[in-house]
Amino acid sequence: MRLLVVEDDPMIGRAIRQGLVAAGYAVDWAEDGRIAELALANGVYDLVVLDLGLPARDGMTVLEELRRAGNHVPVIIVTARDAVDQRIAGLNAGADDYLLKPFDLDELIARVRALLRRRAGVGSSLLTAGALSLDTVRKSVTKEGAPVSLSVREFALLEVLMQQPGAVLSREKLEESIYGWDDDIGSNAIEVHLHNLRKKLGAQAIVNVRGVGYRLAE
């Protein structure tokens, strides 16, 4: 899952990004509203953590323009603006959640996970596909009840595939989902991760649809 953090305070932005990366997400960080708008125009994000008091372009304007453009990516407002009318305005403008500063990073991560589950149409942290089970909170995977050890990237890739069972996802889409701006990506990185997943989950666990992309086996 790929997230965008929009925060102009370097200390807060760095802390949020590091916490979300440690939780297993690919995270980009924009420090003003204009950069955020340019990033969001690509349509690659699964969720946005948005401050309101931003330079160049106010966070509320960024949110309103995002919704006006028909982009329904989940948005969590994270701000010090605590007046009730401001919270109401943020939610009415299209925010999915509103968290006041200062906040506990674990609470933000829990809210991120809850919104991502809602977006994927699942009610719990457990994803299942045949003999595979993946827990998005515990970051664990089992096959027929036996634990499977995966790297961070392998886990992220499998999570993307399991959240869209049956869907064929292109290499570019998978790449966009698990890598951020600052990541060094090899030309065959996705293929290497998929090869390793097949070795651990079974050669037929992930199907290559020639010329299109990849999907989980039926």
Brief account:
Helix content is 41%, strand content 21%. The chain contains eight helices and eleven strands. The protein has helices at 10-22, 33-40, 59-68, 84-92, 105-120, 152-163, 171-178, 189-201, and strands spanning 2-6, 26-30, 47-50, 75-79, 97-100, 126-129, 132-135, 140-143, 146-148, 206-209, 213-216.
List keywords for this structure.
11 strands, alpha/beta, 5-stranded parallel β-sheet, 218 residues, 4-stranded antiparallel β-sheet
SSE-based structural type: alpha/beta
Number of helical regions? 8
Percentage of residues in strands: 15-25%
Q: List how many beta strands DSSP finds.
A: 11
- Please give the oligomerization state of what you see: single chain
Largest sheet: 5 strands, parallel
- Trace the largest sheet across and list its strands: 2-1-3-4-5
Give the overall shape, derived from the CA principal axes: elongated
Distance between the termini: 22 Å
* N-to-C SSE string, H for helix and E for strand: EHEHEHEHEHEEEEHHHEE
Mean pLDDT: 93
Helix content: 40-55%
> Unreliable stretches, pLDDT < 50, 5 or more residues?
none
* Radius of gyration, CA atoms, in whole angstroms: 18 Å
